[in-house]
Fold this sequence. Notes:
The structure holds two protein chains of two kinds.
Chain A: H1 4-8, H2 11-34, H3 41-48, H4 50-83, H5 89-97, H6 104-115, H7 120-127, H8 141-164, H9 169-177, H10 182-210, H11 214-219, H12 227-236, H13 240-268
Helix pairs in contact in A: 2-13, 4-8, 4-10, 8-10, 9-10, 10-13, 12-13
Chain B: H1 2-16, E1 23-32, E2 35-45, E3 50-54, H2 61-69, E4 76-81, E5 84-85, E6 96-99, H3 111-121, H4 126-139, H5 155-167, E7 173-177, H6 185-202, E8 205-210, H7 213-219, E9 222-227, E10 230-235, H8 237-242, H9 247-252, E11 257-260, H10 266-269, E12 281-284, E13 290-291, E14 300-309, E15 313-320, E16 325-331, E17 344-348, E18 355-357
Parallel strand pairs in B: 3-8, 3-9, 6-7, 7-8
Antiparallel strand pairs in B: 1-2, 1-4, 4-5, 9-10, 11-12, 12-18, 13-17, 14-15, 14-17, 15-16
Amino acid sequence: xxxxxxxxxxxxxxxxxxxxxxxxxxxxxxxxxxxxxxxxxxxxxxxxxxxxxxxxxxxxxxxxxxxxxxxxxxxxxxxxxxxxxxxxxxxxxxxxxxxxxxxxxxxxxxxxxxxxxxxxxxxxxxxxxxxxxxxxxxxxxxxxxxxxxxxxxxxxxxxxxxxxxxxxxxxxxxxxxxxxxxxxxxxxxxxxxxxxxxxxxxxxxxxxxxxxxxxxxxxxxxxxxxxxxxxxxxxxxxxxxxxxxxxxxxxxxxxxxxxxxxxxxxxxxxxxxxxxx
Amino acid sequence: xxxxxxxxxxxxxxxxxxxxxxxxxxxxxxxxxxxxxxxxxxxxxxxxxxxxxxxxxxxxxxxxxxxxxxxxxxxxxxxxxxxxxxxxxxxxxxxxxxxxxxxxxxxxxxxxxxxxxxxxxxxxxxxxxxxxxxxxxxxxxxxxxxxxxxxxxxxxxxxxxxxxxxxxxxxxxxxxxxxxxxxxxxxxxxxxxxxxxxxxxxxxxxxxxxxxxxxxxxxxxxxxxxxxxxxxxxxxxxxxxxxxxxxxxxxxxxxxxxxxxxxxxxxxxxxxxxxxxxxxxxxxxxxxxxxxxxxxxxxxxxxxxxxxxxxxxxxxxxxxxxxxxxxxxxxxxxxxxxxxxxxxxxxxxxxxxxxxxxx
Lengths: 277, 359
């Protein structure tokens, strides 16, 4: 049982969540079912039109793919940093974190400079004589993936790194002396112990991707539309009711998916917290 | 009752053990930059012997152990396990068991899985894994704990699991790195007994690393006392205690009084003028000093500066007329009344009880 004083320390955060999150969500929810009169018509519209469902599915797929690419690139990066002498790690972490200091908008425009018809890549390719004319790199699904991965990757590296530093290096030594090769020690000991970090990183990036709209709007093609873009469109057309319904669907699917991830994690993935149980 | 069933279980495992290998350090050096951790270290451990590497921190004992395990490489020199030079072998190919100070149990595996790990890595058949893990857990008195996670065990139980994991594959060599240092005193003494029994029944060669001289005396066949990366003295515990070769050894093993020979006439003043040539000091163990009734002649006088009750013994801090400070330990069975602080007592010492030190 928390004492009153301890609970008091949560008050500012609780007020903030209430004012900035709970109340607006309630408004959005109200908007979705009471505009114009009480009905579930907005939800009905979403689920009965294939266009909306395909955007919805696309959002899920893009988020899952982006999170997975970040995992495949970020986990080994974190592994590399942890394997370095402790004195060198802060510099490497710093380099990973630098991009996070720039706004997503700036970084997305930077990608336009890199990928555009007159961009750095096309310029370099033509200068080297590898291509005759400019390649279409901008306004493609590929550009969306590249930009989103670049923007979200540091989060994966940091999440994996922090759990890896918690792993006692003696455990890997113990596995080796028990007869495990370097690879077997990694697979049987290090990987399971760092799995929680990998899954947490995947989940966070998945959540963030689900809400992305600037990147697909700026570097994606006409078909690279995510749920976020659709919400922006509907708001632009003052379709508050439908925009609210989309927002609710986004929120609920994210919560449900995270719940599933946690469920799987609880069953198969070791978490340091259960060690105390 | 448990000890009987335990004996049968352990002797069964003992019968299965074939391997026990000698270990040889041949002029092994290890430098970290300009810091020399191990300096031309030579040591022969016989097959089946229990040798302790003892020394203060930074003496090179852990470096020596890591080189045997394969976690570290010698800058020069070679280590042999059995007939084989192991310098180029990775840890997993050395067939060595090891117990770590931090237990190093795999937290995501059950006790059973932890102990089964070395067998699985050696591709032992599943039915045999089960039988051997169960037998080894019985041996360390953890029969009913196979399904638990290490996090749910006490410190002593965890160390027993670590022991079981280290010996389950019956490696010819067992390495122990400060293995009992993380436990409290009573538990440590219990586990010391357990380790000795394991050594008797398995017959494995053991290299045990510790900074605790008491633990080294209790456990070892021989002790290799190290300092600054070098071997200072290699002897049985009794020889090391009774006949230390240097000031460092005399001081590190147990407590002692160092009586300088050159400075003043301290030695002569307490009746020890028989030191051989070349000796720089004498080591006189506190329990070798004896009080005698005032009526007796001979011996020498000293002033009592402090008296400490230590259970089975009483300890005195004394000062002689020549200014030498001495520590005396006296069994409580003595008929003499305890002196007050500041009182003068008469002491004597048998010259043969003082060990000459040459450095």
